[in-house]
Amino acid sequence: MLLSNKLLYSLLICSLLYLSSTSGREESSWMKLVDIADSLQKERRFTESFQHWEKAYRLAKNETDSVKNWLLFKTLYAKGVSHNYEKEGIPYFEKAHPLLLYSRLDTSEQSTFFNTYYHFLGYNNRWDEALPLAHECAKLRASLNEDPPLAYLSAIHDVAFINNKIGNYPEAIEYYQQSIDGYIKYNGPMDHDVALGYNNIAFNYGLVGMSNKQYEYYLKASEIWSSIELADNSYLMMIYGSLLRWQKQYGDVVAMEGLLAKIREVVDSKSKGWGSQNRLIQNKNDYENPALLLSYWKSCLDYHLLKKDVQGIQNYLDSTSRFIRNLPKKPNDEVLEYWNNAYSVLGEVNADMGNHVEAIRSFRSGLSQMGQYGYGGALEHSHAKLAKSLMATGQLDEAGKQLQEAFSKNKNRANLPSFHTLSAELAEKRHQPDSVRYHVRKTLASLIGNDELTNDFTQLTSSSFSGRVNRNYIASLSANGHHLLRLYRNANLTDDLQNANHLFTLALDMLNIYYLGGPYTDVLADMQTAIHFGLLECQTLMQQEDTSSLAVLFEKLENNRSQHRWKKFIKHAPSNSATVPDSLRDAEEEQRQLIVFYKQQLANVEKDSLQGKRANQWRAKIHTCEVALASLEEQILALNDRYMLLSQGMVTTRTLQKELPKHVSMLRYMLTDSGAYVIRIDRSSLKLFSLGKTDVLEPLVREATAQLRARSPDYYATATKLHASLLGSDVLNGLHRNLIIVPDGMLHQFPFEALTDTAAPSGFLLHDHTISYATSPSLWLAQRGLRHNRTRSFVAFAPTYAGVAGDERSATPLRLSGATNEAETIAKMLDGYVYQQNHFGKQDFLKEAPHYSLLHLAMHADVQEDDSEHSNFHFGDGSKLYAYELYGMKLQANMAVLSACNTGYGTFQKGEGVQSLATAFTYAGVPSLVMGLWSLPDASTSGIMVDYYRQLIDRKHKHTALATAKTNYLKRVAHESELQHPFYWAGLVVSGDIEPIHSQSSLWYWVVAVGTVLLLLIVFGIRLRKQARTNKILTN
């Protein structure tokens, strides 16, 4: 029995020893597999790593739960990662996440797990689930207190990105700014990640409707990326594309051309791995990513849309279609979005040109293609644009269906204002006034983010929009104002009129914020003219006789206009402010010289189709210099006291009335798309007059101008009708003799003094009023009374041209006898100098002109209507002085007389007025100009010019001197009816400062001084006589 017990005990011990050795062998096996799996995972061989983790997990089935959970976590983690961000990997992360407690990962490794997990979710559009994981990742990274905390900043950047995807745009901006602040602290401001943050902030500002902020941050990103060495220069292409699309909304064709040239430069110089390291591309699996090429084509499409180039757009659509159909695998939504955009652009350009049938076909084709390919992206804009074209063709029911589709598919609240505005338009066409008012209210509610908005819109203020400003918001406010204005005309409800007026005012305020201060674009001008018409019409309909409301309106309208010309003038005008630092002046001059050089090079190659690549390079350089120059000019202007005064206070009615001389009336004409108006201003009164419809007035102006230039005897009858339209009895009543005309639109090309009310030469306005012109009240205020101090007085440039004599100062360089005699005569009168040798050229002008206070150009000029910058003066040596070269000069003249053809004629640019050679002299700082509106007749012009200077020497004001010279001419030809035609004398007009060329103050100083001396002599003589009499009496 004892033996049996001992035997059993021995067998038990042996069994335990056997089991122990077996367990040791199993543990040894799975631990070896763990080591292998770890090594494979570090080499990113995730599929093989997963296989080893899985085997290790199976072998460790007898281990503790803690060990098994650890191995299971590692197995699931590896399996998930092996799916390379495809959706199939997500379930493994979902199962692994609860096991993180057993993962044995340190804090850094846990944050990596979360980072990978939320990236998987994000790349598969599960952003809501990704956000808390990103926050957890950032929290873990923050706890590590790393220096530098680049991984933490990257996680914060990702939190911002995910907020954007969810639609939390303000939160996205906040987190992007946090990441930027950190990157700047540790890497400095010129850093790639800083630029990436700026780019993404810009994108989100656009989504919340803050367009100017969007532009500001895109520029910041562009400045950095264009200044640093990039591992992947596709970033540059994408930021230039973003800026280009912003400029498309703003309407700046010139800026778009420069940006497109830069994009082409980047594309032409792309590296082999182009786009492979671009973190802005969502699809990480495509090495050669199709989105890059399609993004480039999208930029080209945007440019051709603004140029209204239908064929160019069709070509890019065809290329996009072929490219996407030939892709090796089914295109994703990111790629399909570019295709849909191409169809949309083609529809949009056709709609803009009034070809709505073709527009409808394009929109429907795009929607059909997207349906066939299963596109899951945004189509609401396509439905809305289709609805607009359907409305234009009278298909109202179908338009309503498409608008319903737009609302149902919309995921962005920022789209609601434009959709409700379209709905209001549809309701108006259906004669449903209550529905119109409903959608107007819904538009405003969506703009301010308050669905409880009442029907009293006058309670809204600019602050109600919380800083949101963009083109669509402005257009919505204006369009809905017009809806209400038309309702008022039909129903005569005062609330509609008051609400309409208030919406126009809000739209104007928003447009002022949106405007960047440079040249006006067609887009800005179109919005402006619609708003101005609304405000002027409301003012007329309200029948307000008090001048206070009109004074406020006048200020709003004037301060809403382009500041470009007067800012250019002010920068070159005399100033009492502190000296501008040499470094700024030198930098500005360098940029100007580069721009002139690059434009000259561009002119040499752009007409050669084989030089397209070279032309793009010059355009890109010009754009870079112009951006730099604009920044420098703003810095210089900030140091100018007169600029700061005008820019801060802008134009006020009180200031303008105070500055107007006695017995002077200013007539400010305003031609909107729908109605024409004039505001009459003098020192004590302000009145608004409606001139009827613009489409009635403009043909009359056009006809009179053509007849005037052609010396047609029919001109007098037309001019009489035009006189009645522009200067009706109401306008003339109380009008002072001296007039300052501020024209608008095509009125810039017409001389008012040539108007007649008698259908005959005897009734010219010249006989009753002395006229000068101003580009705008703000520029007139800036120009008035300015004086450059130059030691040299007068210089004339009257080149001697080879060939036969000509009778007009045209673009043809024929010999001008009258111009030569004119210059010589005037130079003798003013003790000046004449440059007339045929070897004298442009370079001599550039060198000598800045030293004189009076410039006189009696020569040929050539106006380029298609490109005003290339309008030019002809010199005797064959050289040409281009307008863009004058832009960069700082002339010191108090007056420039451009006694040449068409110097005041040029391309009319919406919002800016006429872009002429005279404009270039204004940019160069000349406060007073005499210019020609057509090809001036040499003989009569010469006589008028000599007489004009004779009157100036007699200290007459400039406008009075020119009017007197013209009147004297008419007296000389009183018996020659043909020569009395305004063609011979009305082509010269004076604009800007009208003060005498010699200071009146100095004249009065001498009069007072001499008078005082004479008085003292008389008093002294009387005393001497009295003294003599007294002495005589005493002697006697």
UniProtKB/TrEMBL annotation:
Keyword Coiled coil: yes
Regions that span the bilayer: 1003-1022
Residue ranges the record marks as coiled coil: 588-642
Pfam family, one: CHAT
Keywords: Coiled coil, Membrane, Transmembrane, Transmembrane helix
Superkingdom as given in the UniProt entry: Bacteria
Gene3D superfamilies: Tetratricopeptide repeat domain (1.25.40.10)
Residue span(s) of domain CHAT: 719-993
PANTHER family for this protein: RAPSYN-RELATED (PTHR10098)
Protein name in the entry: CHAT domain-containing protein
Lineage: Bacteria, Pseudomonadati, Bacteroidota, Sphingobacteriia, Sphingobacteriales
